[in-house]
Amino acid sequence: MNGPFDRLHADLADLAEEVRVVDLRDRTLRTSRNLGIRRTLLGAAAVAVLAIGTGAAFAVLPGRHAALPAGPGPSGQSAATASPTEAPSATASTATGAPSPSSSSGPSTSRCHTDDLQVTVQTPPGGGAAGSVYAWLIFTNTSTRTCTLYGFPGVSYVTGPDGQQVNEPATRRSGISPARVTLDPGRAAYAQLQTGHPEAFPDTCKPVAIAGYRVYPPDETAAVFVPAPTQQCSTNGVNATVVNPVSPLPTQ
Amino acid sequence: MTDKVVIADGLRSPDPLSSINQRLVSVDRLATEFDSFVRGRTPALLRAAYLLTGDQHLAEDLVQSALARTHRHWAQLHHEGNAEAYTRKTMYHLQVSRWRRPKVAESMPGDLPEPGRGGYDHTDMTSTRLTLRRALLRLTPKQRAVLVLRFFEDHSEAETAELLGIAPGTVKSQTAKALARLRTVAPELGEFYSREGNAR
């Protein structure tokens, strides 16, 4: 430090003391929600607010336990039940039946299963290209072991956690080879989703409100619902989503 | 309720209820830790944001936006222990993106009391504050960010460049311009900040 800048530092520090310190906790959580992510960190009270805030897309949630179309599992398996009380213990071992590509990476590191993962959605840091909407599905390893993800998630639009599928499942991006991603506990990877703007298909789109995504992690047969209320085309094949393989998050 | 459904959605473990409970406990703990992070870091973040924006409400909005982005990655950031660095970087980057919007910062001085002659007869310190605040708002947002990082947060040129995602040479030139501008718009302060930037 030398003289002149000590003085500037002191004056800046003094000026900065003018700011009134306020509690930003609630506002931060609201903003976070508005950024379009899943609110797993919110308390129960905030969830009540949220049900109102997310509006019509969620209004259809309860009571939609009727037969859904078979989920777009990555390997074509049918959807798992979503209600905790219905989760049959007999399905616990089915995940091991799915093929795990080139499982030579290490004896103790196995595939991340659906219940090892928290799946959220966010807008990519870079924004979208003209004419396209991008979203990142973030897969966070919430288990206590290291596990791996390899390949494409199965992704489709649904009208609620148990709601109906809208449009066809996302198609896999061609030309990008999947790479195995190893996730230590707490670490995350992502898969990019790309769609066009529904307005670009005025005649064929038939937009409907969707509540979010049904996501099957690669090779898994159980899905998670990821809230992300938007309007999407309901006509099969119109403005279908394209999904990239799961990739490591870019380093900050 | 919604939350529980969401969390339980992917469960297939042999003992779903115990697994749900574990998950909820861990989510609860993460939420609690996020709350204390927010409350612990907000004062320092607000002070820097106030210097960047010159306005109480804009400062709150800026900090809240940065914290919200941290919240989105909380499990990972918390695990890696770099939530604070991420939040700060995000805050400055949000300012960067504001630079590209037309004239946001320049619309702010309307909020300020114009310290006309004799308009402030408080202590000398108070008049320095007013003068400095006015002067800062006549810098570009980028110059302001560089000044705050260099002389309020005491970052080196290299650290400032890294935080803002600009070249070190740009930090140097922006710092020089910012100091020169301060001297021009507030000569009464300028005499104190008169030496050129070889501080470190």
Write a brief structural summary.
The complex is a heterodimer of chains A (252) and B (200). Chain A has helices spanning 3-16, 25-34, 44-53, 56-59, and strands at residues 110-111, 117-122, 132-141, 147-149, 154-158, 165-166, 171-172, 181-183, 188-196, 207-216, 224-233, 242-243, 247-248.
Description:
The complex is a heterodimer of chains A (252) and B (200). Chain A folds into 2 domains: 2-69; 114-248, Immunoglobulin-like, CATH 2.60.40. Chain A is built from 4 helices and 13 strands. Chain A has helices at residues 3-16, 25-34, 44-53, 56-59; strands at residues 110-111, 117-122, 132-141, 147-149, 154-158, 165-166, 171-172, 181-183, 188-196, 207-216, 224-233, 242-243, 247-248. In chain A, the strands form 3 sheets. In chain A, strands 2, 3, 7, 9, 12 and 13 form a 6-stranded mixed sheet that branches. A 4-stranded antiparallel sheet of chain A has the order 6-5-10-11. In chain A, strands 1-4-8 form a 3-stranded mixed sheet, with no helix packed on it. The radius of gyration of chain A is 21 Å and the shape is globular. The two termini of chain A are 30 Å apart. By secondary structure, chain B is mostly helical. Chain B has helices spanning 2-8, 16-53, 56-72, 74-80, 83-100, 124-137, 141-152, 157-164, 168-185, 187-190. Chain B is elongated and about 55 Å long. Chain B starts with a helix and ends in a 10-residue tail after the last helix. The model of chain B is unreliable at 1-14, 99-122 and 196-200 (pLDDT under 50).
Mean pLDDT of chain A, to the nearest integer, reads 72
Largest interface: A-B, 77 and 75 residues
In terms of quaternary structure, the protein is heterodimer
End-to-end gap of chain A: 30 Å
Order of helices and strands of chain A: HHHHEEEEEEEEEEEEE
Structural class of chain B comes to mainly alpha
Distance between the termini of chain B: 56 Å
- Total domain units of chain A: 2
Q: In the CATH scheme, what's the topology name of the largest domain in chain A?
A: Immunoglobulin-like
